[in-house]
Design goal:
Elements (H helix, E strand, L loop, with lengths): L1 H19 L5 H12 L4 H17 L1 H7 L10 H9 L3 H21 L1 H16 L2 H14 L4 H24 L6 H19 L16 H18 L7 H12 L4 H26 L5 H9 L4 H33 L4 H41 L8 H11 L3
């Protein structure tokens, strides 16, 4: 028991670290941990579960404050950046925390119903993965009021798809996802801030209140969305947020962040449930866990306990780190900070993906800037990942 508690705390620590550092993901650390400490079995497995859960809270901080999001959080850059520029960056993080806590707890509570659903329908749904993704793409393009935006949206989908196919299929490059996500959603945001000479307001640290009814509504929506996409390979938190947003209709930036926070956490939780139910691995963390433990009822109960502990730690850590980041950020020249972050993103891209990664970063940032200048939805850039998955499941 003492060993397991130690590894839970270690997992929480690593979850904070991987959440704060762009490009370092819990999946990577999990696979390294297996190679180094695989003999510890269950102890390392609970560390990985705790780490993944805590990261789902903390990784919104670089996404919102720095514009350097992971694949699962890059949609938070858009509404989160708006609040940041109004001096409400800490509030933006708090809204994702609210969603993560409520959504995560609800996911655990409804797990028996989820297990029954997956046992009955899980394998059937897998047969329709490419067609579901095609439907999502069509909605992304054509759910626009103006024909001009539909045309620009289609152009962005085509360009993003070509970039994704070339980089994921034909280029010999490690970690191509990082430069693509960073370019489409992070670097383009930072470059546009420099172009329009955005000025950063002093970040406020205040007590935020959010009515209970919207929190419950958006958290339940995030749980349903996270549970549904957990059985769809190639579909993550960002795509789940897009679909849930379309089903809900117009919502405030705060509501969207609550929903996205919930989806990010529930998607992690359900990925471990899917591992137990179907033996399928959707993340590097799930792959690592599968190699470490026997998947039985006792192990599942231990994981649920670890998840609940990690939800509490992740919520507290994310708020504390957001307050520290806000105080640090308010003392700096925002234009200079943007330039420093841009330089850091180029260095990280070169570190993870080499010179070819730099090229992908620049090309994807250009497409991201195209969406900003034409007023089209930047979610259309998600086609860079969705189209290769569609083609793969169609047999191409």
């Amino acid at each position: 028991m003492a060993e397991i508690l130690f590894f839970i705390l270690a997992g929480c620590f690593f979850g904070i670290a991987t959440g704060l550092i762009p490009g370092i993901h819990a999946n990577t650390v999990a696979l390294v941990a297996v190679s180094l400490f695989g003999e510890s079995g269950l102890a390392v497995a609970v560390m990985i579960v705790a780490m993944s859960t805590v990261q789902s809270f903390v990784d919104f901080i670089p996404s919102i404050f720095l514009g350097a999001g992971e694949e699962s959080t890059f949609l938070s850059i858009l509404p989160g950046h708006k609040l940041l520029l109004r001096g409400e960056g800490v509030s933006a993080i708090k809204f994702t925390i609210i969603g993560g806590v409520f959504g995560g707890v609800v996911a655990v509570l409804i797990s028996p119903v989820y297990f029954l659903f997956i046992e009955e329908w899980g394998k059937i749904i897998y047969q329709f993965v490419p067609f579901i993704l095609i439907l999502i793409l069509l909605v992304m393009v054509f759910w626009q009021k103006k024909q001009k935006k539909i045309l620009w949206g289609f152009a962005v989908v085509v360009l993003s798809s070509i970039i994704g196919l070339v980089s994921l299929r034909f280029l010999a490059i490690s970690n191509p996802i990082f430069p693509l996500v960073t370019g489409f959603f992070g670097l383009s945001t930072l470059l546009n801030s420099l172009r329009v000479k955005t000025k950063m307001r002093r970040q406020l640290v205040k007590r935020d209140s959010y009515p209970l009814n919207p929190v419950v509504k958006y958290s339940l929506l995030s749980t349903l969305a996270g549970g549904f996409v957990s059985i769809l390979p190639g579909v993550g938190a960002s795509q789940a947020a897009f679909m849930a947003g379309k089903l809900k209709g117009k919502m405030s930036s705060k509501g969207y962040l609550v929903m996205l926070g919930g989806i990010n956490t529930t998607n992690i939780i359900f990925s471990f449930f899917i591992l137990f139910l179907l033996g399928k691995t959707r993340t590097g963390a799930a792959v690592a866990v599968k190699e470490l433990v026997v998947l039985d009822g006792n192990t599942l109960l231990i994981f649920i306990a670890v998840i609940l502990i990690a939800i509490g730690v992740g919520a507290i850590a994310a708020e504390v780190m957001a307050i520290i980041a806000a105080k640090w950020l308010s003392k700096l020249n925002y234009a200079l900070l943007n330039k420093i972050i841009i330089g850091l993103l180029f260095l990280l891209t070169y570190w993870f993906s080499g010179a070819v990664g730099i090229l992908l970063l620049i090309v994807s940032a250009a497409v991201g800037l195209l969406t900003i200048s034409t007023g089209t939805k930047r979610t259309n850039c998600m086609a860079f990942l969705m189209v290769p998955v569609i083609l793969f499941y169609l047999g191409f």
